[in-house]
Amino acid sequence: MFSLETLAWALGDLSMGDKLEKLAFNALPATVKADMTSHQYLQQVNQVRASDEPRRWYNNANNSNTFGLEPNFGCCTANMHQGWPKYAANLWMATRAPRCRWAGCGGQP
């Protein structure tokens, strides 16, 4: 999400806001448990089961697909609560004109 926020700012491409919104309201909620006590390190499109079955991961363990406090890296457990506050903090961006645009939804005011 941070990368898309930075790209929207650096390139002035507010369509990045559409992608950011999709991540914030679809992918992010799907990767954490409702009470924020566990998360899933790697997600798969149309995934029907979170298990530790062997997969062809490039550099992650089989438990990367399961929900847990620390299924692969501990830094996600410490940082997973930051997604929505940082999304909200970056919804507005200044334009060259003396006004601001709502960047969180494709720049629609």
Protein traits:
elongated; 109 residues; two-stranded antiparallel sheet; 9% strand; alpha+beta
Largest sheet report: 2 strands, antiparallel
Oligomeric state of the chains present here: single chain
**Shape field:** elongated
Task: Indicate the low-confidence ranges by residue numbers.
Answer: none
The class by helix and strand makeup works out as alpha+beta
* Structural Rg: 16 Å
Total helix count?
4
The number of strands is 4
N-to-C SSE string, H for helix and E for strand: HHEEHHEE
Range of helix content: 25-40%
Distance between the termini: 21 Å
* Mean pLDDT across every amino acid position: 78
- Largest sheet, spatial ordering of strands: 1-2
Q: Please report which band the strand proportion falls in: under 5%, 5-15%, 15-25%, 25-35%, 35-45% or over 45%.
A: 5-15%
What does this structure look like?
- This protein is an alpha+beta fold and 109 residues long.
- The protein contains four helices and four strands.
- It has helices at residues 2-11, 16-31, 74-79, 83-89; strands at residues 39-40, 67-68, 92-94, 100-102.
- The strands form two sheets. It has a two-stranded antiparallel ribbon.
- The longest helix has 16 residues, at 16-31.
- The chain is elongated and about 55 Å long.
- The chain starts with a helix and ends in a 7-residue tail after the last strand.
- 15% of the residues are buried.
